[in-house]
Structures are given as structure tokens and as C-alpha cells.
Amino acid sequence: MITLTVNGKTVRAREGSPLLEAVRAAGALIPTLCQHEALEPWGGCRLCLVDVTRPEWNGWAKMVVSCLYPAEEGLIVQTHTERVVETRKVVLDLLLARCPETPLIQRLAREHGIEKTSYLPNPEPTDCILCGLCTRVCDHIGVFAISSVNRGAGREIAPPFHEAPPDCIGCLACAEVCPTSCIPYETSDARRTIWNKAFEMVRCPRCGKAHITKAQADFYAGRNGVPQSYFETCDACKRQEMAHTFSKLSAGAGGTEMETGKQGNRETGRP
Amino acid sequence: MIEQSCAPMPPLEEILERYPREEASLIQVLQDVHRAYNYLPCDVLAKVSESLGVPLAKVFSVSTFYKAFSLTPQGKVIIRVCTGTACHIRGATQLIDEARRLLEIAPGETTPDMGFTLKTVNCVGACAMAPVLIVGEKVHGNTKPAKVAKALGVEERHHAH
What interhelical angle do A259-268 and A235-254 show, nearest 10? Predict the structure, then answer.
């Protein structure tokens, strides 16, 4: 563990861990859009900018994105210096120009004193801020169904050839992780549609809930070498089943002394 | 090279055999495919993805990222008009107008006989010889609209036929 200073407050952090963690541990409130605890930091949204300096730098400080900057011993971090606040405002101003109708961006901009973008608003408003969370989560799962296509102003997130992605398993991870909820999908007990691809649902044999797509069950089973039937039962029912098994086991292990409590256990479902 | 594209397409397997079957070979394979087919056909990209073990989404991402790759069939000769600042000031717009007039296509389009594709590029890094016109592999510096017809190699085309 190392010690560093955030806004005058001393905090301890793991050496090399993302500075953002230490900043948040110190209670400093800075917005992020492309960060997710399950994924590697990416440094795309530039909102987690902070000023860092060290005593031996003689007053010189630099602006860094805290999600990518490694925590080091003795670092002095400022999260709201004038230039950091100004730069963050520029980023939000630009985001608002790109996504003038997106509630999340409007709210963040307003919180930073921007009511209206000072740039030309996008004539074709979009909700996608190109944070890359959807493609990164898809890659992380190992599906690689969608990616960033084209470049510069024309960059967008799309499946290959803008057609239904052959590799998509319909897990909805991309839609769930999207900060602006801009990936449309429909899901019912019978069918799920995302990226213009339709999926058949698997129903839990115990509770009947359609909790997973067939493609998802096939993908997980193929990867983990676990029989597909394992994925048919939903997580809630699996937990219940497990609890039952353990309650029986512990009752059995207790022998005759536990006999009296057995009836009650069965009712509460607890060991 | 131009003649080669008229010949039957070399099998994709031949291209794939030139490089190790790994992710790092992707761009080299795509360049060779582009050279052989004059564009990147969808079905070929799918085979490249399978053969190199690179997800199709990644192959598509790389194919759309680089300006050197096209997903639509290209003309035999690609004409690039530089529209960088220096070329713009020294008359790139007039060069484009002249090329449009001669070929009857807009930038980004291909002539119906698949002879020419007209493109604009942001800067070719040869500002000293602005305005720059590139026909196929040949670079024409200090070009004037009056020189475009010759640079487009109308004579050369007649030779080829």
C-alpha cells in the first residue's frame, strides 16, 4: 500500500491501481462515462481528468485521466483546479453538441454549468457517445459481435456489414452496460431481438421464467464444457436447489440431535 | 498490377498461405486481398476472419478504419485529388471539377465501366508541389485543370484496349 493526497486528504491505495479508485475513496466526486468496474480502464470519455503533481516537481503539475494513471507514493492530486474544471466543461460541451437530446448528457452538462452547447448541435442527434463500453463488454465475454466501424466523424458502433451479427448470443450485456441506454432491444418469454437478430429463449424448467437465450446457453456450454442442461435452470432456482441440498446435508450430519429441529427447517428452508 | 485484376481472381488460399495464420497477419492479408480483388468482398472477409481466427467484427472494424481499403468494387485506376490546405489554396477544387467533368462521376464514385474511381484525400504530404493529383501510382505535382485529361491517361487506356 502507498499513500497519496487527494484534495488535501491523505488516502491509501494499492500501488499501480487506477488513480480514479483513490480519488473516489477520498470522496471526490468526478463524473465518468466510459468506466466500468468489470472492464479494463479505457480513458475514452476524458471526464475523470485530474491535476497531479509531486513536491519535487517545483509547482509543475500535469493533467491526466485518472482512470488510466497509476497510483504512486506521494502523489498530490487535485480534482477541481480551474483548468481541470474548464477542460471537463469543454468535454461535456462537445458531448452535448453530439448528443443534444440525451438526458444523461444534458444532466451532466447542467451539473457543470452548461445549459446549451456552445458548438453547433449535431443535426442528426444520437444517444451514442462512443464510450466503447458495449464493444469492450462484448469482447470481454469473448463474443466479439460488435465493433467500432469507420473513423473520425463517421465512427459508429455496428455489427459487421451492418447486418445481424453472426456471433451475437443475445446476452444484452451491451445494452445493459450502455450509459445512455441507446442500444434498442426487445425481450419477451418467447423471443428476444437485439441488433436485428432474433433469439429463441430457454425457459427454466422449474419456474418457467425465460431467462437466457438458446444461443447464450450454447455459447456458455461450449466454452466451459458444462452440459447445456445446467444453463436451462435459472439462477434463482439453482440457488434454491442448492439451499435445499445443503439444508438436507446439514440436517443429516447433525444426526439424531438435530431431529427435533428438522420439521421447522423444512418450513423456513434454512439450515 | 492493373492487368492482374482483369485475370481470374487468385484463390484466397494462395494469399493466406503467404502469412502465418494469426491476428498479426490481418492487415497484410487485407492489403493482398484488396490488391487482388480491387476491393474487400464480404464473403472473402468472412473467410479471412475464419482462417486467421480474428472475429468478423474486428475484421470489419479494421476494413472500415483504413482509407486504403474499400468495401465496394473500385475502378481499375484510382484517382486521388489532394484537398489539403496547400492544394486547396492552389486549386484542388478546380482539379476535382475537371475530373468530374471528364469522368462524369462525383468524388467517391466509380465510372460505370469500372475504369476509374475518383477520390479526395486530406493530405498526401507533398505540399511543395501543390496541387497534387495521383493517378494510380503516379503522382502529378503542380497540376492545372488543363493537364488533368492527360494525367488521367486517356491515351494509356486506348493502348490497353
Answer: 170
Residues B59 and B81 in one domain: no
pLDDT digits (tens, 9 = 90+) for A196-229: 999 999 999 999 889 999 999 999 998 888 888 8
**Residues A117, A97 contacting (CB under 8 angstroms):** yes
Interface check for B59 against chain A (CB to CB < 8 A): the answer is yes
- Best interface-test mutation with B: which of A147, A148, A167 has the largest number of B CBs within 10 A? A147
Instruction: Quote ipTM for the complex.
Output: 0.84
- CB within 8 Å: B61 and A148: yes
CATH code at A2-80 = 3.10.20.740
The reported pLDDT for the residue numbered A225 is: 85
Chain A touched by B24 (CB under 8 Å): no
A33 touches A105 (CB < 8 A): no
Single-letter amino acid, residue B67: K
Q: Strand pairing partners for A10?
A: A5
Q: Does B7 touch chain A (CB under 8 A)?
A: no
